[in-house]
Design brief:
- By secondary structure, the protein is α/β, with parallel strands linked by helices.
- It is built from 14 helices and twelve strands.
- The chain has helices at about 40-50, 70-85, 105-115, 125-130, 140-155, 165-170, 175-180, 210-225, 235-245, 300-305, 305-325, 330, 335-345, 355-375, and strands spanning about 10, 55-60, 90-100, 115-120, 160-165, 185-190, 235, 260-265, 270-275, 280-285, 285-290, 290-295.
- The protein starts with 8 loop residues before the first strand and ends in a 26-residue tail after the last helix.
- The relative contact order is 0.13.
- It binds iron/sulfur cluster.
- Iron/sulfur cluster binds near residues 322, 332 and 350.
Length: about 400
Amino acid sequence: MTALPRIELLVVQPTPFCNIDCSYCYLPHRSSKAIVAVETLINLFSQVFSSGWVHDCLSVVWHAGEPLVLPVQFYRQAFRTIERLNPAGLKLRHAFQTNGTLIDEAWCAFFAEEEVNVGVSIDGPRQFHDLHRRTRAGRGTFERTITGIRLLRRAGVPFHVISVLTSESMAVPREMFDFYVEEGIKEVCFNVEETEGDHVSRSFADAGIEAAYYRFLSEFWRLSSSQPGVITFIREIEQALRQVVQPSDAPIANQLVEPFAVISMDWAGNIATFSPELLGLKSVAYGDFLLGNINSGTLTDFLVNPNLTRMVKDIEAGVRMCRESCEYFSVCGGGEPVNKLAENGTFASAETKYCRLTKMRAIDLVLDAIERARLCRDGTDGFDGDLLRLPHPLVREPIGSGR
Ligand code: SF4
C-alpha cells in the first residue's frame, strides 16, 4: 500500500450475543455473552484518532451481535470515554443496528439525547418477519420488534428499517408498502437473503429472483412516488441514483475494497477490514481474515500483516476482473469481497448473484426510469415522468451497514 488509508467507518461489536436466532444470521458466536472491555475501546479509539487516517468525520456502528442486550449505561460511559479520546473534535456519528425487541423508553431517551442513527431489522408484515426472525425456542419476534418501532415513533426518534427480502416478500410489493405506511415507517433499506458464511440463500436458488427483485423495487418506487412524503427514503433507489447521476470524471468509490476504509473490531479486540462480515468468518482458502488485535498491536502493524497483503492482492485482482468485464463497473466499483468469497470461493473473481441483484438490477431500474423520462420529455412515449420525482433531496448522510 502506498497512500495512507482513510478510515470512514468503524464497526464495533460490543458483544457477540444476540437474544434471538434468525435463520439467515451469519454470526458464528451469537450465543456467547462476552462483552468488550473499556480498555479495548480505549485502545481502538485512541489509535484511530491519533492515526491521521480519519478525515473530517467518522461513523461508528455498534453491531455484529444485538447491541441492546447491554445496558444503556454501558453506552453512556463508552460514548463519554470516546469523546475524551477525541481532542481534535473529529465529527463522530454513532449508529445502532438492532433487532428492536429490547427497545424501551430508556433506549428511546438515549437515542434522542445522543442523536444515534437507529436501524431496526424488520422483514415486513408478521408472516414474512416470523418466518426467519425467531427466538431460540422457535417463536416469532414480530410482536416485540413492532412494539419497539412504535415506541421509537411515539418518542419521535428518527429511525430507518432494514428488511431482508425473500422470494415470498418480493412477490408482494403492495403488501410490503402498505405495511410500512400503516406503521409510519418512512425510511427503508432492502437487503436480499444472501449466501454468506454458513448460510446458503434459498432465494438465490430461485431462477426468477433477478426479475422478481426488479419488479419489486420498481413497484415499490412507483407506489412511494404516487404518495409523496409517505416513504421518504428507499436506500436502493437513492444509492443507484447517486451512482448513476454524477459527473463522468467522478472517482469510482467503493469503501468495501479499500483497505481500512471500513475497520471492524470484535469484542476481544480482533481487527478486520473490507466487508464487516469477514470479521468472524473462516475459509479453507484464507483461514481467518484477522489483521491482529488492537490490545497487542497497532494500526501500523496491521498494515504489514500477511493476511492483509494476501487479501489486497486477491481483492485488487477481483476489482480488475470487474473493471475489464462488467459494464456496471463505473457505478459499482468492484462489488463486495464477502459475497465474491461466499459465491465464487475467492476474492479474485467478479460477478456474483448478489451483485447481479443488488447492483445491476437496481441500476437497470434507475437507468430505465431515466430513459423513459427522457422519451417522455421528447414527446415520444406516454410515460408520465413521475417515477423520477423523488419526494426529497438525494444527498443525505449514508446509513451504516448492517442488517
Ligand atoms: S456489478 Fe458485479 S461484476 Fe459488475 S463491477 Fe460490480 S461486483 Fe463486479
